[in-house]
Amino acid sequence: MQYLAKRYNFISLNRLVTAIEKKDWSKIPSKALVVTIDDGHMGNFRLLESIKKYQVHPTIYLCSHIIGTNRHFWWKSGYQNIKEMKSLPHRDMLQKLRTQADYWPEKEYDSRQALNISEINAMQSFVDFQSHSKFHPVLINCPDNVSLDEIKGSKSKLEKILNQSVTHFSYPNGDYSQREIDFLKKCGYKSYLEIGTKADATFSRIEIENKIGLEPRAKNGEKNIISKTSDDYFKDLDGNVKFDIKVNPSF
Q: How far apart are CA 123 and CA 223, in angstroms?
């Protein structure tokens, strides 16, 4: 983080979204860096001192019905073929996880994997918490009612926990369709973050633990912005990654 702080200017996701919304980049510094973290793993709490020291202003997208519990993330259930799980219809995925890994989303284990509420409260003055669904399913493999409930239910619960509005969403696994975009609009989200192929800027892999010197190519002369996501504790992303932030109502 010290290396990044010397070379980039940390800005919040809200500041970036406001610039996109207003089409005014005058308040975005050069070499701006947006840090986003998915899921809300308990290891994120260890970042707090660095977040405060370097004034990072990150956004952590939380799985609302896993944080504050001893529930586990489905890909940490012990089932080995994660790629297979992502290809199955939601019902079949849950059935296979239950029969072969003794996993179901509401199951409480002896230990937790996600942030607890006291940790979230301690971080809230320095971190922007937003929505990453309830249980991190593959939304495009879910029936309509499940996909909507994951998007709507997460927002509702997080707003109660945080006592603030939740207006940004990151798609679990980066998967979505027009249906999910429509659900986000319906639920009152302001933006979403995708990892895909239709991006406004292309970002090369960033390795937080090593020296880096990679910069993005900004679109239409806009200022360079780097955005970084991770599973837990700033893990690397594999290969070239494209980020595209869409702002309602023009998604």
A: 29
Please give the CATH superfamily to which domain 2-71+114-247 belongs. Answer: Glycoside hydrolase/deacetylase (3.20.20.370)
Assign 124 to helix, strand or coil.
Answer: coil
Measured CA to CA in angstroms, residue 11 lies from 27, 31, 57, 116, 164 at distances of: 10, 10, 6, 26, 20
Assessment of whether the complete model's pTM goes beyond 0.85:
no
Q: Which residues contact 117 (CB under 8 A, 6 or more apart)?
A: 67, 68, 161
Residues of the chain with CATH 3.20.20.370: 2-71+114-247
Handedness of CA 120, 52, 167, 66 (dihedral sign): negative
Q: For residue 5, report the phi and psi dihedrals to the nearest 5 degrees.
A: -60, -30
What are the pLDDT digits (tens) for 45-87? Answer: 999 999 999 999 999 999 999 999 999 999 999 999 999 999 9
SS3 43: helix
